[in-house]
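Dear colleague,

Thank you for sharing your sequence with our group. We've completed the structure prediction you requested, and as agreed, I am returning the results in plain text so they can be pasted directly into your records. Please verify that the sequence below matches your submission; if there's any discrepancy, let me know and we will rerun it promptly.
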Amino acid sequence: MRFFFLLLLSLALQANIDQKITLSKNKLNQTKSSLKRLNLKLYTTARDIQKEERQLKDIENSLNSLEKEIDDKEKNYQENIKKLKDLNKTKENLIKSSKKLKEELTLLIAQYFSKSIVASKIEKANLEDVINEEILDAIKKSQKGKILEVSKKYTSVEKELEKIKSQIAKLQNEISDLENRKKKLIKLKKREKDTLLTLKNRKIKYKNVINNLLKEQKSLRDAIAKLKILKTKQMTKVNKANNIKIKKYGHSYQYVKTIRYRGPKTIPPLDRFVITKRYGKYIDPIYKIKIFNESIELKPLEPNEKVKNVLDGRVVLVKMMPDLNYVVVLKHKNSLYTIYANIDKVSPIVKKGKRLKRGYVIGRVSRKLTFEVTKNSYHINPLDLIRAN
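Please find the predicted structure tokens below.
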């Protein structure tokens, strides 16, 4: 039994190694495709970053130009405000001068009329009255000239004031417009900075993913190389240890001795299952040779299915084995052995030397259960022992 069990285990290991090599190669190809896609994304992101940086630079230049323009307008605005103040002061002085001249002229006229009224009562005017009248005319002409000059200045100042007011209003509108443009540019600048930061973070993320993929790619290549070496060693070990010459496809060989079980049938190791591999000859899909399958494979219909002991017996082996997960072997009456492989979890009570009743849960399985039966170095078709559903 030991011979055949080791042979089955070795062949299973070889098949599993080839399967791992194939899976690793597929994963390596997927990694290459992922790297290609990520490199394209990285290139696109880098290009977008350059574009955003150019746009950000343009915004910076526009902001600098705008700020200079605002400064110039502000200076011009302040200069016009000063002019306005000065002109308003001049205007006030002109108003005061005009008022004073008018008051003086009014006073002179009033005095002249007072004298005229007195003189009119006298029948004959004297020389002094004539002189006074001439003087009054001269003063009136002089005062009128001054008043006219002040009026002209006042009108000129009024016009200049209106002009400056208009310039100030225009400057205020321009400054307001520039300030609004500045606010918009500042918002745009912030948005561009946020976009640039997002792109740079994305670039870092892509680089990290690429580095991880490159590491994974290296690990896969190393794993494939090791698996190929392991496969070669395993094949050599099997051939030497068992002294078997494996023949090519089309040739058969018989080295498994099978006896028929004639006792009463017992419970199956799983409650609900389908048989995915039967006992007997089959062609190995990896090596393309005819081999004899000494066990059956059962696929549970529910994940984490209970694996049950099929007969009363004693545990002789509980071991984690490469590619077979947990293996449990029980010895029963009349040198009958049952072997359970690919168990995901083993019950903590199941230990070597432990006696178990039929139906006791020895572990749980989700993917597949390999079940084998032997007696006195002969194999028994497990389906002769258990009731298949």
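Summary note from our side: Residues 2-120 form the longest helix (119 residues).

Kind regards,
the structure core
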